[in-house]
Amino acid sequence: MIDAIVCTIGDEILIGQVVDTNSAQLAQALEEAGIHVKRMISIGDDRQEIASVLQDALARHAIVITTGGLGPTKDDITKPVLGQISGSKGYVVHPGQLEMVHKILAKRGLDVLPSNLAQAQVPDRAEVIVNKLGTAPVMVFRNVQGGGTLYALPGVPHEAVGAIPDIMKDICSHQPTESILHRNIMVYGMAESALSERIAPWEDALPADMHLAYLPNPLTGIRLRLSVYGGNADENRIRVEEQMTRLKSLLGPLVYADKDSDLETTVGELLVKGGKTLSAAESCTGGEIAHLITSVPGSSAYFLGSVTSYAVSVKEALLGVPSSTIENFGVVSSEVAAAMAEGVRRVTGSDYAVSTTGLAGPSGDERNPVGTVWIGVAGPRGTRTVSYCYKNDRKRNIERFAASALNFLRLILQEEL
Asked: Quick one: 223 and 76 in the same domain?
């Protein structure tokens, strides 16, 4: 199997000033093309370090992809290092990239400076893929020092991602690739350790060429990914589907999506299918549920709105939660969660409503420990509530509260619709 390594270059990544998103995009594209990513490395702006790491990578891997260090300023030192390790004798101007430099700067209303023109110069051993989104070209160095092929991409994320289709086309035209199949299902409502024990007999019986990965996330639950590398793609697809059918029968309603997805998308699909609408009343989640729901394209078809009723006065005045209910049971209670859901459903006229009231931290109250949340769902068949207690920091608790509310809503919608 052809393998690859992705290298990001720049001090800004190593000091945490810039988050590396290029590697994730490249890794996904490489896997889809049948190329296994073995390593990801970040390198600072140091000539000797860049040269050493890249020479070692080229000796070990068929494909090496770098991003960063190709700009017009003095701290962009990747290009001369690539010229050095590729054995280039000098630089040549690539006419296609030079034309693109003039077009881009003219479109931006900027003068063409010598530093801009220099970006169209490349080491003479480089092949060029014209960068249509920026001034620095994509450079390809083949059989570097008798080793692999190196692709040098700009570090600007939209330029790097924009170059991926051309990179994949070039790789596939020069390298034999193999089938890589990934199949995902999404699970919510069980801890990773408990889930592992529950499906252990099934996992232990998997064929030797199938590999299961557990990928937990507080907002989406656990993604279970079954992978097969190599072999016949059509046969693997049939075999994997057979295994996934067995797995889903073991997990039942814990499975909320038969693909890589999230709870807010699943809730939206259920509401659209049933022709129903939704609203939200949030206290401890502070609008997180509304944010997640409205992040889904087309959510305006079913989501009517929300009330972030953080203060008791807002719960009473806008949602109609009786003061006696709060006095008798406390703000963080089943009764208040129910009244909040019923209140926002009444105010907005939605078919369903979800509510949260809880203690995200860092302090609790005399009735509830930190991490307690009550969730209410009101609908045509009445109102139901549920409580959870999580032992995380404030940010993580809010994420868990919101995800648990969406999952509780999801289970009710699946039952009623």
From this structure: no
Same domain membership, residue 392 and residue 278: yes
DSSP-based three-state secondary structure for 181: strand
Q: 22: phi > 0 → left, psi -120 to 50 → alpha, else beta; which?
A: alpha
Task: Answer left, alpha or beta for residue 408, where phi above 0 means left and psi between -120 and 50 means alpha.
Answer: alpha
- Two tokens at 408? 């509780």
Q: In this predicted model, what pLDDT tens digit does every residue of 48-87 receive, in sequence order?
A: 999 999 999 999 999 999 999 998 887 789 999 999 999 9
- For the stretch 293-347, pLDDT in tens is 999 999 999 999 999 999 999 999 999 999 999 999 999 999 999 999 999 999 9
For residues 300 and 369, state if they share a domain.
yes
Asked if the bond preceding 369 is cis, omega within 30° of 0, the reply is no
* DSSP letter, residue 74: T
Task: Please calculate the CA angle 260-263-267 and round it to the nearest 5 degrees.
Answer: 120
CATH code, domain with 372: 3.90.950.20
Say whether both 144 and 278 belong to one domain. Answer: no
**CATH code of the domain in which 211 resides:** 3.30.70.2860
Q: Does 1 have pLDDT greater than 80?
A: no
Average pLDDT over residues 336-364: 96
The string of DSSP letters for 236-265 reads: HHHHHHHHHHHHHHHHGGGEEESSS--HHH
Residues 323 and 375 occupy one common structural domain: yes
- State in Å, rounded, how far the first CA of the chain is from the last one: 47
What is the DSSP annotation of 18-53? S---HHHHHHHHHHHTT-EEEEEEEE-S-HHHHHHH
d(CA 86, CA 124): 9
Give the total number of structural domains in the chain: 3
Question: b/e per residue, 205-228, with b = 16+ CB within 10 A?
Answer: eeeeebeeeeeeebbbbbbbebbb
Report the predicted TM-score, pTM, of the whole model to 2 decimal places: 0.79
Both 164 and 15 in a single domain?
yes
pLDDT (0 to 100) of residue 367: 86
| Structural domain containing residue 238 | 180-257
Distances (CA, A) of 146 to 62, 86, 130, 149, 391: 11, 10, 25, 9, 54
**CA gap 126, 130 in Å, rounded:** 12
Q: Which of 174, 199, 218 is the last residue of a domain?
A: 174
Rg for the chain (alpha carbons), in Å?
27
